[in-house]
Amino acid sequence: MILKEKINSLYRSYYRLKVKVFSSTKVHEAIAKVPILRGLISYEGNKIHEIMSGFVYTQILHLLIYLDIFQFLKKEGRSLDEVSKFLEIANERSLLLLRGGCALNLICYKRNKYWLTRVGAQIVGVPGLMDMIQHNQILYRDLLDPVKLLHGRSETELSQFWPYVRKGGEKKKISTKVSSEYSKLMQTSQRLVADQTLQAYSFKGVKSILDIGGGTGAFLLAVKSKYPGIQATVFDLPNVINVAKNNHQKIDDIVGLLNFCPGDFLKDDIPSNQDVISLVRVLYDHEDSTVELLLKRIYEALPKGGSLLITEPMSGGSKAMRSSDCYFSFYTMAMTTGKVRSFEEHKVILLKVGFSNIVKHAVSAPFITQVMSAQK
Ligand SMILES: C[S@@+](CC[C@H](N)C(=O)[O-])C[C@H]1O[C@@H](n2cnc3c(N)ncnc32)[C@H](O)[C@@H]1O
Predict the structure, then answer these.
(1) What's the CATH number for 140-375?
(2) What is the CATH architecture assignment of 34-124?
(3) Counting atoms of ligand 1 from 1, which one is nearest the CA of 193?
(4) pTM listed for this prediction
């Protein structure tokens, strides 16, 4: 105890010294005279600049997509004149945008023309990525007054985009148009989440899976393509199930591959006797009390030994991560009920509900999703 207090006190002294040194312009001037230290200070200065510039970067990306520049460059390189003609704006203005895109390594300038870089080509090629990027404009509008948002005093646009987070009567009035809009976005962005999840978690020997909040069934189709013998059921709100069935009727090949179960996961019966129940990008939409209730209902529905699979962006906890602790946390906050949880925070609720064998499964791209499982 005494040792711990001594270490804490040492840390406080070190902290006061650090703040004093690095906030002093005199020290900066002195450091600027020492080559190695000068490098460190300008490296950190650049970091501050990068953070400050983030919003401008997103808007350059938005313009390149919204004004169809990426599509225009997809086939071949284009000169400044060609781009300006395409955009119907002066060369001077197109040049600003093109140079911004080059600085972000989204496009490049070679042989007097502008071309897509590898990163730019991925943005054009990954299904749904441009729609996903574009829908962030809603989040940016909600972030216009971040203080109000942080205090929870904002009426947000994202809570209209994801209307199932709204309370009572308003939730009941969700139109099919709105359900199909958010479901389409989820469906097209599912491939990367499913790839990561299937790399991390094995369904070997699993006979049946129920995907709660499964949207239009994109995750289960990915599971079925790797494990064709598995019985797969999607559970989602009736509107979404209608959208899903409609989609699947249009694509003859997959009719009959999935079972559909319409319902509200907080009220309606959850099909029992499933080997695995999955929650793919579901829990982070909801506050703790909703999550606890849903997990309790899932626990009751699972047979003894049955597994729960959770895959969604997770907080880095004490080792905060930009993707989840900046982007997804503020996104879900703007949804009003959402919350990005760390593995440990999920674990606390899972243990409370009765689950055991709680395991984290390693993924290669944690900014897309993180995977954990638990057992009844
Ligand atoms: C963020 S989306 C994720 C969809 C899908 N799992 C995916 O990753 O693409 C959350 C899903 O949960 C569904 N959902 C939300 N509240 C629900 C409720 N009370 N009962 C059933 N489904 C619900 C939504 O309709 C939506 O399809």
Answers:
(1) 3.40.50.150
(2) Orthogonal Bundle (1.10)
(3) 8
(4) 0.92
